[in-house]
Amino acid sequence: MPRHIILLGPPASGKGTQAKRIAKKFGLPTLGTGNLLRQAIEDGTDLGTEASHYINKGLYVPDELIEALVADWTMRHSAGWVFDGFPRTRAQADFMGGDSGITEPDIVIGLEVPVGELERRIDSRRQCRDCDTVTNTFVHSGPSCPEPQCNGVLYARNDDAIDSFRVRYQQYQTLTAPLFELYRNQGKLSLINGAQDPQSVFNDIEAALEKIASDSDRQVS
Ligand code: AMP
Fold first, then answer.
1. Which residues are catalytic?
2. Which residues have a Cβ under 8 Å from the Cβ of 185 and sit 6 or more positions away?
3. Whose CA is nearest to atom 5 of ligand 1?
4. Residue 93: closest CA among 181, 190, 212
5. pLDDT at 216
């Protein structure tokens, strides 16, 4: 099975939810750069203070900050990972491919969701303060996390306000969408319809991962 997996997609396309599912099923650690940054903000670290200026406006955090964070995390998890939210710019993708020591991805899952559906999701999205589980007010109306054994408080992210979302989506279109082409040219991109329900999206991702695994078995034999 592929062990180095990137999830690429616009805000609210389900990257975090699917990263968790992949991680659980295949025993891989997940790096959610947005979650790490929110944790740094909550902890009041220098990184958090600097990052918050960008995040609150819906802007991407500068590449150098993210790259240092990812290089540090990846050193401790080199055997395999699921990246949720990295890389997000061409510079970050090149950083991986350069002498950062980070393994290149085996597969890049590209989640496609129309913007109208993203706006609908953003409005109702809630996240757990303790375990980062993401849910929405349509499927879960209570104030606390739906995960068994977690009683964390659910909150609406500041940057999920519609104005902030529009800035994030614009950043995504300009800076991240070109990475689809990059990874397509490398033969690593698998496009998935992310507008389906989470289980159907996961089934499609699993099929894509299995296909990559059987293709590489065939190349070996
Ligand atoms: P997310 O939780 O993935 O939606 O990320 C929340 C915010 O964190 C983004 O809107 C960015 O401001 C910042 N962020 C997360 N990952 C990156 C990244 N790879 N590059 C730049 N900014 C990032």
1. 15, 88, 125, 157, 168
2. none
3. 34
4. 181
5. 77
**pLDDT score of 213 more than 90:** no
Q: Which atom of ligand 1 is nearest to the CA of 58?
A: 10
Does the structure show a pLDDT above 80 at 221?
no
**pLDDT value at position 1?**
87
- Asked if pLDDT for residue 98 goes beyond 80, the answer is yes
Q: Which position has the token pair 């090149």?
A: 94
Question: Mean pLDDT throughout 37-54?
Answer: 95
Q: Is 88 a pocket residue for ligand 1 (Cβ < 6 Å)?
A: yes
Q: Which residues face 193 on adjacent strands?
A: 112
Contact 82, 23 (CB under 8 A): yes
| CA-wise closest residue to 59 among 96, 89, 22 | 89
Expressed in angstroms, the distance from the first to the final Cα of the chain is 16
Q: Which atom of ligand 1 is nearest to the CA of 84?
A: 3
Instruction: Provide the edge-to-edge strand list for the sheet that holds 154-155.
Output: 134-136, 125-128, 154-155
CB 106 within 8 A of CB 4: yes
User: For residue 160, what are the contacts with CB-CB under 8 A and spacing of at least 6?
Assistant: 12, 122, 123, 125
